[in-house]
Amino acid sequence: MAQYDVIIIGGGPGGYNAGIRAGQLGLKAAVVEKRVTLGGTCLNVGCMPSKALLHASELYEAAAGAEFATLGIEVKPKLNLVQMMKQKGESVTALTKGVEFLFKKNKVDWVKGAGKIVGQGKVEVTAEDGSVTTLETANIVIATGSEPSPLSGVEVDQKRIVDSTGALSLPEVPKSLIVIGAGIIGLELGSVWRRLGAEVTVVEFLDRITPGMDAETAKTFQRSLTKQGITFKLSSKVTAAKAGKSNVSLTVEPVAGGAAETLTADYVLLAIGRRPYTEGLGLESVGIVPDKRGFIPTDHVKTSAPGVWAIGDAILGPMLAHKAEEDAVACIEMIAGKWGHVDYNLVPSVVYTSPEVAWVGKTEEQLKEAGVAYKAGKFPFSANSRAKINHETEGFAKVLADAKTDEILGVHIVGPQAGEMIGEYCVAMAFKAASEDVARTCHPHPTRSEAGRQAAMGVEGWTMQA
């Protein structure tokens, strides 16, 4: 049996970064991955291909709509969906090949097949041809990620009723698309097809979109998406879906009770969230019992079984690729005898629509519920020079700081390049910065980042440009 210091089950952002860090630290490492490519959901059918389509569709809409004409650029674009999908695939292939290169560079073995724990320090790998190999190791890291959550009465066939994977490769632009779920994934993919010409309706069980997002930010975000043509049916539950040859019929009822209605669309996207992929891993062989949702209980990524660790979407915390990367580094460094830690309060979230939405730390609702006295500073992008010049004036930046100490507690941005801007505040909050620290730090002009600075000024009431 092959002997390793660490075997990682899963080759996604958590798994492949764990392998790379292990190699850097001189550990003999193997990553077990059953896909034909590395990168997991994120690189193959998640973060990366969706961003490729978001970028392409945003450019298409800019050219096809009034934006280019306003700038004095007169064109009549023609959509080539086949080429748009082709370039998406080429980008994904380049990224997955890049991970393979990093494995070779850091002497990490990629063991192809499905991994299963078969006892302490033992992982059984079943290859595509059915052959079975057993590997031995001092440490096992579970990095199996997550999969789309199902919904009773809605059967995904990847033809007319699709999940996030299927929505990335539709063979045509739908005339109409219904998205079940107003979370990040549903709104991003709904935005792609809306820009390309589909009529998009979003059905959401809750009375608001994007649960977990600061409420004021979510309302502004919803107004923007509505202006763009997305229709929202909130406080509504889907009880049945029937797929035909050319369309889907959905039965929708008010959550509060009342008469059901039937909605019809060319395609339906089921996007109500994700669940941990932890079944069939042989957890029982080492005495690990997942919770009722499938998450593996951990204490600083350590499971209850000696020498078994779990990271990323397989454990509690934000189900985000960059959180999995942080888990991976902390886990491997602890295995190597170093000190590792992840502050989940400083894991940012981003919605890559237009406008983008990004946030880190606490929302106003969370601070009120915890009884924390705070001050808020807010600055609109309509008053930001760069945003005005670029015709990107929707949204705002908001900074929440402790009323006594001025420590930054949360930051919420809806507007252009919000995902890029939030990183500044992640660093600031990691160093326990006060809002005044950001307010008195020189920012380049004209940039969107000045909106974040002006919002920080607003905490103490001295915003200068609005």
Q: How is this structure best described in words?
A:
The protein is α/β, with parallel strands linked by helices and 466 residues long. It has 3 domains: 2-148 and 275-344, FAD/NAD(P)-binding domain (3-Layer(bba) Sandwich); 161-272, FAD/NAD(P)-binding domain, CATH 3.50.50; 355-459, Enolase-like, domain 1, CATH 3.30.390. The protein has helices spanning 13-24, 40-45, 47-64, 66-70, 81-105, 164-167, 184-195, 215-227, 321-335, 364-369, 385-389, 418-430, 435-439, 449-459, and strands at 2-9, 29-33, 108-112, 114-117, 122-126, 132-142, 146-148, 161-162, 176-180, 199-203, 231-233, 236-243, 248-254, 261-265, 267-270, 274-276, 308-310, 349-351, 356-361, 374-380, 396-402, 408-415. Strands 1, 2, 3, 4, 5, 6 and 17 form a 7-stranded mixed sheet that branches. Strand 18 and strand 19 (356-361) form a beta hairpin. The protein is globular and about 65 Å long.
Largest sheet: 7 strands, mixed
Termini separation: 68 Å
CATH architecture of the largest domain: 3-Layer(bba) Sandwich
- The chain-level mean pLDDT equals 97
Number of domains in the coordinates? 3
Rounded to the nearest angstrom, the radius of gyration is 23 Å
CATH H-level superfamily title of the largest domain:
FAD/NAD(P)-binding domain
Total of helices: 14
The amount of helix comes to 25-40%
Q: What structural class do helix, strand and pairing data support?
A: alpha/beta
Shape: globular
* Structure summary, number of beta strands: 22
Portion in beta strands: 25-35%
The low-pLDDT segments are: none
CATH class of the largest domain: Alpha Beta
CATH topology (fold) name of the largest domain: FAD/NAD(P)-binding domain
